[in-house]
């Protein structure tokens, strides 16, 4: 490092989590059954038979966790709201006690001087809505907008930084293409409709926010730079499909007004014609884009691998416990690509981090040098993007706590803070101490 990086004084340093991954207490205080509660209890869906019945017990230990955030020097905390606590059946009957948890959480964060950054939907929602057709049902957009509107009013004055959806691509790919997430049954023909309704719901929620919210609202997407395994035309074509499918499917409509033409090639006869007025709605302007970055993928042509007909070519490089290649420059690639192709809106890295097989705590310490190196290299890449003029406003490490990594269960540890199960004992890792120094020095220690 020639010159020490220096991040802007108003750069927002945080850490992120999501409701089902950390809260536990899935049915407490009148909460309804969620899609993830039901799915995780279906045998064979989650590694080791894990589920979120306890998770990090954050629903009950949130004050302790806010104290941890203060010790880490966090300026902001990104969390998600569990829809099924608010509307147990998805819509209609409001559950005040469920809402109350998020009022308490927001008040405690504000009292601690930590900016609450709420995501309205991070994959968990009332199972009843899946039973009524889920995101593939056209009315799901309005269900979401009504839920969002209720939250904007209820948390008005407490939460000023909102995101509508977390990674809609994962909801569609894992839920409707792979079947690895709820609803859990591959349904290629439904996937384009689910994606479309997620985007319509996002836009309707932004419109509701304009009418009766206060602050900033944005969308959070996962991005993964794609590279071709060779210059062969079939690998170049696979690259175009893979890139469109993962990185452009949602951003092209919200910023450019239409889907990538590769989508019709990928879905063939299952690719619908959508009403023109939908695209006008989906372009509803919002205030920031959140980017979740983990890794890149090198792809080759693979005709048998439907629907994208691509396959990953594993690289000789360091990989995380998720078998994701460690590729720090990919974070800068994502940030500059969004600025160049889509928008000069403010950007946030709303998730970045790594799972490694951390050792247990010894004398109150957890040595996680590989996570320290991962954070250092990715923060350097983020700073490089800033230096090139990207309007990067903040960075949220994934995750504050080790937690329920969806179908992988608790075996994949992404936390800056170790959680020992089932006691729930929290132990800040070396990476947490490193991150605190990064925040204090505004990046000078990188
Ligand atoms: O896989 C790590 C993270 N990726 N983005 C969404 C989060 O819920 C995941 O835990
Ligand atoms: Ca208001």
Layout: helices, strands, pairs:
Layout lengths: L11 E5 L2 H4 L12 H6 L17 H15 L3 E5 L2 H4 L9 H16 L3 E7 L5 H5 L8 H15 L6 E6 L1 H11 L12 H22 L3 E8 L2 E3 L4 H16 L2 H6 L5 H6 L8 H7 L5 E6 L3 E5 L8 E3 L16 H13 L5 E6 L16 H19 L4 E7 L18 E4 L4 E4 L1 H12 L5
Parallel strand pairs: 1-2, 1-11, 2-3, 3-4, 4-5, 5-7, 6-8, 7-10, 10-11
Antiparallel strand pairs: 8-9, 12-13
Helix pairs in contact: 3-5, 7-9, 8-9, 9-13, 14-15, 15-16
The chain binds azafagomine (AZF) and calcium ion.
Azafagomine binds next to loops.
Compact description:
With 446 residues, the chain is of the alpha/beta class. It has 16 helices and 13 strands. An 8-stranded parallel beta barrel has the order 1-2-3-4-5-7-10-11, surrounded by 5 helices. Strands 6-8-9 form a 3-stranded mixed sheet. A two-stranded antiparallel ribbon has the order 12-13.
Would you identify the regions where 5 or more consecutive residues have pLDDT less than 50? none
Mean pLDDT: 98
- Tertiary shape: globular
Q: Summarize the biggest pleated sheet.
A: 8 strands, parallel, barrel
- Number of separate strands: 13
From the alpha-carbon coordinates, what is the Rg to the nearest angstrom? 21 Å
End-to-end distance: 8 Å
SSE string: EHHHEHHEHHEHHEEHHHHEEEHEHEEEH
Order of strands, main sheet, comes to: 1-2-3-4-5-7-10-11
Helix count, per DSSP? 16
Strand content: 15-25%
What hetero molecules are in the model? azafagomine, calcium ion
- Into which percent range does the helicity of residues fall? 25-40%
Structural class: alpha/beta
* Oligomer state of the chains in this structure: single chain
């Amino acid at each position: 490092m020639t010159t020490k990086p220096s991040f802007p004084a108003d750069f927002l340093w945080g850490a992120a989590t999501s409701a089902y991954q950390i809260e536990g207490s899935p049915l407490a205080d009148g909460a309804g059954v969620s899609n993830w509660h039901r799915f995780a209890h279906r045998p064979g869906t989650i590694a080791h038979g894990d589920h979120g019945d306890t998770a990090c017990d954050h629903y009950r230990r949130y004050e302790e966790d806010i104290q941890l955030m203060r010790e880490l020097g966090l300026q902001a905390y990104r969390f998600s709201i569990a829809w099924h606590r608010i509307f147990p059946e998805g819509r209609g009957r409001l559950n005040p006690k469920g809402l109350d948890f998020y009022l308490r959480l927001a008040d405690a964060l504000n009292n601690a001087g930590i900016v609450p950054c709420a995501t309205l939907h991070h994959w968990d929602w009332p199972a009843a809505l899946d039973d009524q057709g889920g995101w593939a049902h056209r009315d799901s957009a309005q269900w979401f907008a009504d839920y969002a509107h209720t939250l904007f009013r209820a948390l008005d004055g407490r939460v000023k930084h909102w995101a509508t959806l977390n990674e809609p691509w994962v909801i569609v790919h894992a839920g409707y293409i792979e079947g690895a997430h709820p609803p859990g049954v591959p349904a290629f023909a439904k996937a384009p409709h689910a994606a479309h309704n997620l985007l319509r719901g996002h836009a309707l929620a932004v419109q509701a926010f304009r009418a009766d919210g206060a602050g900033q609202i944005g969308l959070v997407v996962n991005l993964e730079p794609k590279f071709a395994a060779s210059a062969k035309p079939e690998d170049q074509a696979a690259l175009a499909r893979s890139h469109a499918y993962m990185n452009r499917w949602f951003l092209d409509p919200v910023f450019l007004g239409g889907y990538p033409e590769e989508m019709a090639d990928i879905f063939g006869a299952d690719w619908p014609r959508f009403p023109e007025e939908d695209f006008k709605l989906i372009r509803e302007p919002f205030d920031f884009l959140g980017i979740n970055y983990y890794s890149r993928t090198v792809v080759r042509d693979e005709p048998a691998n439907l629907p994208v007909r691509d396959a990953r070519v594993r690289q000789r490089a360091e990989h995380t416990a998720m078998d994701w290649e460690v590729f720090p420059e990919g974070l800068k690639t994502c940030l500059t690509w969004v600025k160049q192709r889509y928008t000069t809106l403010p950007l946030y890295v709303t998730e970045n981090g790594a799972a490694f097989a951390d050792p247990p705590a010894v004398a109150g310490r957890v040595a996680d040098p590989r996570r320290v190196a991962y954070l250092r290299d990715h923060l350097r890449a983020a700073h490089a993007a800033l230096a090139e003029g990207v309007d990067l406003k903040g960075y949220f490490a994934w995750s504050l706590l080790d937690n329920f990594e969806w179908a992988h269960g608790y075996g994949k540890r992404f936390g800056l803070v170790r959680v020992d199960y089932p006691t729930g004992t929290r132990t800040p890792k070396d990476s947490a101490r490193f991150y605190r120094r990064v925040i204090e020095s505004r990046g000078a220690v990188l």
